[in-house]
């Protein structure tokens, strides 16, 4: 029998809403088996970030070569830097029957939707705009000017939430994680043979 492909899961939402925090918590749990697609970016590495773990850090020139060589599933320029998803890893991992998790902004998610309409698209929202701004500020990675720019983009991004299959509020990390896991299991059962979903998520042979 032909092996079923994996599910492409896309988590989007405005900068600072907690996508990375929620994603890391999901991946730390042992009952989850998604593969994380590491993005490429031309932005500068932040303190504590590791090349090849958080991102593949590129010069603008190298990133533009990746675009030319069609190495990206999607890409965008966000607040002055390029971000994109390396296509080979995603395609190969899905072919192997594994579920792939992308954590990307809204413009990129729109591009992925065109290429993978069967993907699962989840949008993470903050409890309020004030809380969103507090979170970006508390993270302490952005200058005041960049925070203003990211908040301006966030207001437009939030208008796009209706394009997603699900909207999840990140009030508490634990709540968001549990909701996302429940959505993924339900959607897996809906899209694939139920035997495959039972085996994958509940260990039932
Ligand atoms: N539910 C939550 N309650 C309070 N603080 C949170 C919550 N989720 C995340 N945070 C905090 O908000 C800040 C931003 O989180 P995070 O970096 O995960 O956001 P992000 O959406 O991945 O941002 P970006 O898109 O810019 O990479 C961090 O300081 C994080 O600890
Ligand atoms: N379209 C894409 N967006 C991406 C990708 N990787 C990350 N992102 C998003 O960019 C912003 C800014 O990220 P930061 O690390 O500088 O805070 C944020 O919304 C990320 O989710 C990608 O491959 N493609």
TrEMBL record:
ATP binds at residues 13-20. Keywords: ATP-binding, Cytoplasm, Kinase, Nucleotide-binding, Transferase. Pfam families: Guanylate_kin. Its EC number is 2.7.4.8. Residues 6-185 form the Guanylate kinase-like domain. It comes from the Bacteria. PROSITE patterns: GUANYLATE_KINASE_1 (PS00856), GUANYLATE_KINASE_2 (PS50052). The keyword Transferase applies. Gene3D superfamilies: Guanylate Kinase phosphate binding domain, P-loop containing nucleotide triphosphate hydrolases. InterPro entries: GK/Ca_channel_bsu (IPR008145), Guanylate_kin-like_dom (IPR008144), Guanylate_kinase (IPR017665), Guanylate_kinase_CS (IPR020590), P-loop_NTPase (IPR027417). It catalyses: GMP + ATP = GDP + ADP. It is found in: Cytoplasm. One of its GO terms (cellular component) is cytosol. One of its GO terms (molecular function) is ATP binding. NCBIfam families: guanyl_kin (TIGR03263). Essential for recycling GMP and indirectly, cGMP. Belongs to the guanylate kinase family. This is Guanylate kinase. It comes from Perspicuibacillus lycopersici.
């Amino acid at each position: 029998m032909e092996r079923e492909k994996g599910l492409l899961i896309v988590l989007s939402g405005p900068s600072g809403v907690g996508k990375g925090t929620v994603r890391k918590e999901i991946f730390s749990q042992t009952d989850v088996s998604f593969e994380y697609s590491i993005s490429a970016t031309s932005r500068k590495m932040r303190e504590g970030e590791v090349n090849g773990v958080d991102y593949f850090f590129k010069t603008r020139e190298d990133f533009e070569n990746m675009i030319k060589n069609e190495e990206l599933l999607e890409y965008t320029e966000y607040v002055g830097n390029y971000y994109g998803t390396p296509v080979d890893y995603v395609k190969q991992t899905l072919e192997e029957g594994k579920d792939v998790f992308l954590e990307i902004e809204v413009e990129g998610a729109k591009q992925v939707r065109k290429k993978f309409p069967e993907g699962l698209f989840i949008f993470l929202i903050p409890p309020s705009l004030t809380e969103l701004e507090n979170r970006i500020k508390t993270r302490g990675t952005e200058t005041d000017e960049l925070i203003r720019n990211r908040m301006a983009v966030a207001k437009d991004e939030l208008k796009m939430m209706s394009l997603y299959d699900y909207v999840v509020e990140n009030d508490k990390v634990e709540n968001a994680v549990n909701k996302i896991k429940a959505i993924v299991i339900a959607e897996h059962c809906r899209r694939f043979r139920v035997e495959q979903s039972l085996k994958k998520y509940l260990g039932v042979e």
